Amino acid sequence: xxxxxxxxxxxxxxxxxxxxxxxxxxxxxxxxxxxxxxxxxxxxxxxxxxxxxxxxxxxxxxxxxxxxxxxxxxxxxxxxxxxxxxxxxxxxxxxxxxxxxxxxxxxxxxxxxxxxxxxxxxxxxxxxxxxxxxxxxxxxxxxxxxxxxxxxxxxxxxxxxxxxxxxxxxxxxxxxxxxxxxxxxxxxxxxxxxxxxxxxxxxxxxxxxxxxxxxxxxxxxxxxxxxxxxxxxxxxxxxxxxxxxxxxxxxxxxxxxxxxxxxxxxxxxxxxxxxxxxxxxxxxxxxxxxxxxxxxxxxxxxxxxxxxxxxxxxxxxxxxxxxxxxxxxxxxxxxxxxxxxxxxxxxxxxxxxxxxxxxxxxxxxxxxxxxxxxxxxxxxxxxxxxxxxxxxxxxxxxxxxxxxxxxxxxxxxxxxxxxxxxxxxxxxxxxxxxxxxxxxxxxxxxxxxxxxxxxxxxxxxx
Amino acid sequence: xxxxxxxxxxxxxxxxxxxxxxxxxxxxxxxxxxxxxxxxxxxxxxxxxxxxxxxxxxxxxxxxxxxxxxxxxxxxxxxxxxxxxxxxxxxxxxxxxxxxxxxxxxxxxxxxxxxxxxxxxxxxxxxxxxxxxxxxxxxxxxxxxxxxxxxxxxxxxxxxxxxxxxxxxxxxxxxxxxxxxxxxxxxxxxxxxxxxxxxxxxxxxxxxxxxxxxxxxxxxxxxxxxxxxxxxxxxxxxxxxxxxxxxxxxxxxxxxxxxxxxxxxxxxxxxxxxxxxxxxxxxxxxxxxxxxxxxxxxxxxxxxxxxxxxxxxxxxxxxxxxxxxxxxxxxxxxxxxxxxxxxxxxxxxxxxxxxxxxxxxxxxxxxxxxxxxxxxxxxxxxxxxxxxxxxxxxxxxxxxxxxxxxxxxxxxxxxxxxxxxxxxxxxxxxxxxxxxxxxxxxxxxxxxxxxxxxxxxxxxxxxx
Lengths: 462, 464
Description:
Largest interface: A-B, 30 and 41 residues
Mean pLDDT of chain A: 88
Number of strands of chain A: 16
Number of domains of chain B: 1
Mean pLDDT of chain B: 94
CATH topology of chain B: Amidase signature (AS) enzymes
Shape of chain A: globular
Order of helices and strands of chain B: HHEHEHEHEHEEHEHEHHHEHHEEH
Structural class of chain B: alpha/beta
Largest sheet of chain A: 9 strands, mixed
CATH class of chain B: Alpha Beta
Distance between the termini of chain A: 26 Å
Largest sheet of chain B: 11 strands, mixed
CATH architecture of chain B: Alpha-Beta Complex
Number of domains of chain A: 2
Oligomer: heterodimer
Number of strands of chain B: 11
Low-confidence stretches of chain A: 212-223
Strand order of the largest sheet of chain B: 1-3-2-4-6-5-10-11-9-7-8
Radius of gyration of chain A: 26 Å
Strand content of chain A: 15-25%
Low-confidence stretches of chain B: 51-57
Helix content of chain B: 25-40%
Strand order of the largest sheet of chain A: 2-6-7-10-1-11-12-13-14
């Protein structure tokens, strides 16, 4: 996408674990929509004399994330103190992990069918730390004040750091989405960006492709040399609260940095934030050098030691991962890509579909249609049994309408009924089509064949 | 005069209904009122000590420490009772919760008399760096009581309580016990919970008792020891019945006198007292000889670096935002320690200082492991000499570290130690330190108890 520069993108993703209690105390781990400072105790308030007592489940769940990302689980790891002063950090240090994270050296296979990418993104490390409190800026008695809510203080937070292997904004977005799916399948976090249980940060830097003189070394295709060394600056982007903004922010940053480099300037090493209003990244603070956090081993918590047996147990407790289910849907049931995407969005739905498809395959039912039925008529898989669903599907099979003038009328009416979805679809949000299909299904009282409807709609809206 | 009772005597009298808790408490309060203006051992007196658990009702009476009043160092959090750690930063701080040690003693029925003076933040070995003025040594008020648990040691020997609680990072229980002539027990690191104790050197801090006799130490340790669900560094090893080690003698125990601890600059009469103690043990049937140890002087550097690094981190929370005064209220000693610790942990220096110190620490641990393959216990002087004069710390940034040189090697190795009086020079007490392997508190108590029964030192009291 960039002619003159090679792009290096690395992601740092924070995920709050949904354990019952906080990381180092018995307080309830729930800070969203709760009255301020109601879930606190001496430990998470950093009162004198209070000591952290680590949450075993949070440590195990972090190991699960590590394993799902093909990391090595380190048999010996420890917590460290990371020091900095900020009002939302009551102890003056954050308990984190420095040189011995719980998991390291993993990778995630990017195999998005739509983007035709097959690329391994290396994972540098997965570590566990505690979340901070939250600052609330507001007016009290007509005075501007900053209040601190410590409900979030001490919530278990997993940090996942990639190598700067990501090459395009789209790939960064796909990586983050894939990671979200994996963690949701593990069931260890909601990964809800609106609630802040998943937070994205991107590091971006660019290096010019240098052209070697032919006399010294033969040119590679396109006259570009291989670049292996990272640029000596990097820009960190924070405040990204959706996948779409991640893509936009990186795009903006690549343009900004390549403009600077083209003028012979080196971009500043700094932290920038994504501004939705300005549709741009804006400087937050300069980072001349690495901040000195004065890490040292947390003396209040003994080192963490795993045996081979324990690591084996963690490995065995990993459920079917989205990749494997996707592979089954693709290779065994031969489902179309857009169905696979929807069906693997969440674990419950994927397992429901897998179970239904398995039976349907045995009974020789049309798999495509069955999948379409699940995709287009969202069913509550927590209430409907797979058997009941199959039975109903078979009964309906006899009177499904695949072509008729009636179908045409429903489609035309639905396009009128759902102008927003139509507009979104035309803008490239292909997902929006499901809303229109849903409307057709409603009008037809479930008699239309959703896969046929989709095909017809796609032709019409092209 | 019930304030003069030992813990064991008080327990017996209370159990047999010969005395009421209220009587002991009021005698202690009277003694405090009479003598503490001179000694300054207490920072806060608990005005209503009986309201909590002091009522010697029948159900409480059966508890081990029911109705027994004690003094506790002011770095232990006491719910509802001001806790300053000897610093103006916490001048008005009233904790919302109590330390595990306080809860355990309350569960055993003991009654808090008050909070004792200490070097601010436990940074010192004199109690002279307290923001509330130095405690005076009851044997001679022109001398220091030692520290940092100086208030607790002075309160015990002056009979201003039945027993006291202190905390030791390196020497802070044993050194004031030695200088004041009482018994001080520093348990193995992790034997007694640190939860609710204002942290100094987190990897070293050990709460423990200061008492009038070794027997009393055993009784208090029994109430304190054990794993705590609020302190991840407490040992899962079950606590022992330490009183079962009393009256067992020392026959056939192998005891080594640490020859390296009889420092060249040490006074001859102090060395003689230690050698005399060796002879006492020999007469009691122990096998005693001299044992070579690693030179204790390297422990000063190791201890200083580890402790200062941890201090700089532990004091970061005192920002004055949520409680207490702001950081300008830190005294000179705390500022020095924060500065040195911050420097030692800075990028590029952590390897040179903090990590190197940890390596030397490992060497000391191995040295002790080797010694304890051949010896059951080691003895030596607790402190290089008797209590120094008031003002001795002025201009001496390393005063504490030099005074604590003889307890630092075992402290950085996490070992337990017991200081008991073993004689007097210039009218001031000298302490004998008994050191054992990790979790050997029982054996140490056994040896201390045997020595105490064979010698008159613990019966001597200062004239106030």
